C-alpha cells in the first residue's frame, strides 16, 4: 500500500504544528527548561507568522487589541526594569495571538477535534504505564530532581498525580476536562461513553482540585440534566476506591480540607497575599498600573522587583521553594496594568463573544472561558501556552463549525 502525502495533509500538519512544538516543550520541562522555552516561543512566533500569511482577521479582535496595546506599551515603559517589562509584556500577548490564530483556522474544527481525541488517548495509555512503573517503584522520566539529587514526584495522600506525557498534573486535568465537554457536544460515534470515561479518568487521576472544582461547577449549571448520571459514576468510583484504600481516601479528604483552609478560609498563602495587595491597589485607585513585570509573574522574581518589599509581601511557607510566580493571575494583572488596563485586557479576550448568537455552540464556548477563568484564579494559566492551546484555540472554530 503506497502512502501518499497530499496538500491537505501538509495543511493539517501546519495547523497542528504549534500543538506539536508546545507539546514537545512540555515534555522537556522536567529536564531541559531552556530548550522547552525555546520551543514554546517558537510556537508563539509561528502562530504570528501563520496568521499574517493567511491574512484572515476578526475586525472586532483587531479593534480591541489596538485599544489595548497603548496600555501595554505604557506598562512596559514605566516598569522598574525594562528587561522585565519586555519579557513579560510578550506573555501578555500569548492569549491574544492564540485568538488571532484561532480565527485564522476557524474552518478547521474537525482536524482540531480529531487531534484532541488522539492526544487524550495517547496520554491515557501513557498514564497507565506511569501507574504501572510507579507501583513497581521505578524512577520515571518526568520526576523532578532537586539540587541534592533527590527524585521528587507530586503525590496527594500517597497517590501519584496523573500527568500522562505532559509532566504537569494541573494541565493534564485541565486538558481532559476541556476534552470531556468538546467530546460530549460533538462526538456522535459508538465509543462516546468510552471516550468520556477516559477523560473523566484523566481528570480525577490528576487530583487537580482546580480542574475538578470547575468541572463540578459546570455540571451543576450547564449539564444539570445529566449531572446525576455523571456524579453517580464518580460516586461509584469513589466508593470502590474507599473500600479498597480507605486510608488513602481519608488522607485525600484531609488534604482537600487543608487546601480550602490555606487558600480560602484562613488565607495563609502567597495566593491570598496577592489578593490582599490587589485590593489595596484598587482601594488606592491604581488606574494605570505599576508597570509590567513588577508583581506576581516570573519576571518580577527573576529581576528582583522592589514592589514586594514596598507592600510587605509575605510568601509564607512557599518562600523556600523559590517560586517564580505568586500562582494567581488577577492580582498580577490589575497591579501591573491597573484597573483600566486590566479590564481592557480582559475585554480583548472575550471579543469573540461579541455579536455572537446565543446557541448551544455559544454555551460550549462560555464553558471553555469559565474553565480557563476559574483556573487562572489559582494559577498563571491565562499566560500559559499549554492551557491556551487547549481552550481559546477552539473558540472561533467552534463558533464557526456547522454540524452535519
Task: Describe the structure in your own words.
The chain is mostly helical and 404 residues long. The chain contains 18 helices and 4 strands. The protein has helices spanning 7-27, 33-54, 59-77, 82-92, 94-104, 109-135, 169-186, 192-206, 209-221, 227-244, 246-265, 270-283, 298-302, 307-310, 329-349, 360-376, 385-389, 395-400; strands at 144-145, 151-152, 155-156, 159-160. Strand 1 (144-145) and strand 2 form a beta hairpin. The two termini are 31 Å apart. The model has no long low-confidence stretch (mean pLDDT 84).
Topology:
Layout: H1 7-27, H2 33-54, H3 59-77, H4 82-92, H5 94-104, H6 109-135, E1 144-145, E2 151-152, E3 155-156, E4 159-160, H7 169-186, H8 192-206, H9 209-221, H10 227-244, H11 246-265, H12 270-283, H13 298-302, H14 307-310, H15 329-349, H16 360-376, H17 385-389, H18 395-400
Antiparallel strand pairs: 1-2, 3-4
Helix pairs in contact: 1-2, 2-5, 3-4, 3-15, 6-7, 6-8, 7-8, 7-9, 7-16, 9-16, 10-11, 12-15
Amino acid at each position: 500500500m503506497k502512502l501518499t502525502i497530499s496538500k491537505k495533509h501538509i495543511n493539517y500538519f501546519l495547523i497542528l504544528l504549534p500543538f506539536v512544538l508546545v507539546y514537545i516543550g512540555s515534555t522537556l520541562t522536567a529536564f531541559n527548561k531552556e530548550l522547552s522555552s525555546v520551543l514554546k516561543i517558537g510556537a508563539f512566533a509561528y502562530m504570528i507568522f501563520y496568521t499574517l500569511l493567511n491574512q484572515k482577521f476578526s475586525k472586532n479582535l483587531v479593534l480591541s487589541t489596538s485599544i489595548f496595546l497603548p496600555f501595554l506599551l505604557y506598562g512596559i515603559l514605566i516598569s522598574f526594569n525594562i528587561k522585565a517589562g519586555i519579557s513579560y509584556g510578550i506573555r501578555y500577548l500569548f492569549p491574544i495571538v492564540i485568538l488571532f490564530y484561532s480565527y485564522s483556522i476557524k474552518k478547521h474544527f474537525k482536524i482540531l477535534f480529531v487531534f484532541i481525541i488522539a492526544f487524550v488517548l495517547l496520554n491515557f495509555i501513557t498514564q497507565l504505564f506511569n501507574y504501572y512503573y510507579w507501583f513497581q517503584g521505578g524512577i520515571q522520566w518526568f520526576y523532578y530532581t532537586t539540587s541534592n539529587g533527590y527524585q521528587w514526584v507530586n503525590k496527594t495522600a500517597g497517590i501519584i498525580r496523573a500527568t500522562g506525557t505532559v509532566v504537569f498534573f494541573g494541565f493534564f486535568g485541565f486538558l481532559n476536562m476541556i476534552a470531556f465537554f468538546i467530546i460530549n457536544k460533538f462526538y456522535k460515534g459508538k465509543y462516546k461513553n468510552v471516550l468520556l470515561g477516559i477523560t473523566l479518568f484523566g481528570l480525577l487521576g490528576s487530583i487537580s482540585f482546580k480542574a475538578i472544582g470547575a468541572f463540578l461547577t459546570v455540571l451543576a449549571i450547564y449539564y444539570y440534566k445529566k449531572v446525576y448520571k455523571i456524579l453517580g459514576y464518580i460516586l461509584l468510583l469513589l466508593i470502590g476506591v474507599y473500600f479498597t484504600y480507605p486510608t488513602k481516601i481519608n488522607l485525600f479528604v484531609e488534604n482537600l480540607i487543608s487546601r480550602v483552609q490555606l487558600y480560602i478560609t484562613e488565607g495563609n498563602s502567597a495566593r491570598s497575599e496577592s489578593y490582599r495587595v490587589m485590593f489595596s491597589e484598587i482601594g488606592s485607585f491604581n488606574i494605570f498600573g505599576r508597570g509590567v513585570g513588577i508583581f506576581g509573574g516570573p519576571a518580577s522574581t527573576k529581576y528582583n522587583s522592589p514592589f514586594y518589599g514596598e507592600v510587605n509581601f509575605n510568601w509564607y511557607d512557599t518562600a523556600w521553594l523559590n517560586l517564580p510566580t505568586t500562582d494567581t493571575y488577577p492580582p498580577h494583572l490589575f497591579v501591573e496594568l491597573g484597573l483600566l488596563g486590566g479590564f481592557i485586557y480582559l475585554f480583548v479576550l472575550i471579543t469573540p463573544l461579541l455579536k455572537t448568537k446565543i446557541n448551544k455552540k455559544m454555551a460550549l464556548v462560555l464553558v471553555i472561558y469559565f474553565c480557563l477563568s476559574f483556573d487562572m484564579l489559582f494559577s498563571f494559566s491565562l499566560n500559559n501556552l499549554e492551557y491556551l492551546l487547549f481552550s481559546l484555540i477552539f473558540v472561533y472554530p467552534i463558533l464557526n463549525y456547522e454540524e452535519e
